[in-house]
Amino acid sequence: MDPFASTAELTFPHAVVVTDARGPIRTHGEVDESFRWASVTKLLTAAAALVAVQRHLVALEDPVGPPGATLAHLLAHASGVGPDSDAPVAAPGRRRVYSNRGFEILADHVAEGVGTDFGDWLEESVLMPLGLSTVLLEGSPAHGARGSAADLARLGRELLAPTLLEPELFARATTVAFPGLTGVLPGFGRQDPNDWGLGFEIRDGKAPHWTGAGNDPATFGHFGQSGSFLWVDPRAGIATAFLGAEPFGEWAARVWPRLSDAVLAERG
């Protein structure tokens, strides 16, 4: 069965790339067309921040944001900073408060630590090394990137077989940080727990969710309100990138899990 049959109802431009660590397995749509990544941008920003950590230019324990919060808290949406405001809505480490503003604060901290504009650091530390030639950061490091599904899948391949980050740091980033925190997963409601790594959402047992029922609990990635996602399933050894021209809505909550399960079923 063609896994892309699950997207047949979609009437707007979209592209899908399924890849393993060696290269694309299946593609659908205009994979070189540029789309908005929205919050999938946070994967790039997290990677750039972690490269700075690895080079000892900043540290996960650096105090950043509200009193008691660190760079690690900000990456894991556990600082208590509100979604789009500096004003804290919870104490650090008490709730998973999904925060665009938190990622802007951490990007400013990284820029100060590396001594250059964050966009330049992102290009130097992530985009150029991975050959993400279509990707541009237009505005916020929380949601301002745009680029092709082909390049988003290249990021997926990097996350399947990391070259930018050492194994210990990568493992820490893709396992649960500050376990046991509840919170709201945008578009899918309250999750208990609402597990997150250092910039990477961890699937675990969340329901409902934008990945498939067949995705391993260790699956990590991100989705965006532009109608975008990237998930990486380390057990299956594949990643799937989706970009589209229609904002996230009921269609995505319905189609994305079916697409994910169909991709995994074909993989076997």
UniProtKB/TrEMBL annotation:
Q: Where is the signal peptide?
A: none
Molecular function (GO) terms for this protein are:
hydrolase activity
Source species:
Georgenia faecalis
Q: What is its EC number?
A: 3.-.-.-
Question: Which Pfam families is this protein grouped with?
Answer: Beta-lactamase (PF00144)
Q: Which positions fall inside the Beta-lactamase-related domain? A: 24-247
Q: Which PANTHER family match?
A: BETA-LACTAMASE-RELATED, CONSERVED PROTEIN
The record's keywords, sorted A to Z, are: Hydrolase
Per UniProt, the enzyme's principal EC class comes to hydrolase
Gene3D superfamilies assigned to the protein according to its UniProt record, in alphabetical order: DD-peptidase/beta-lactamase superfamily
Name-wise, this protein is Serine hydrolase domain-containing protein
Do you know which SUPFAM superfamilies this protein is assigned to?
Answer: beta-lactamase/transpeptidase-like (SSF56601)
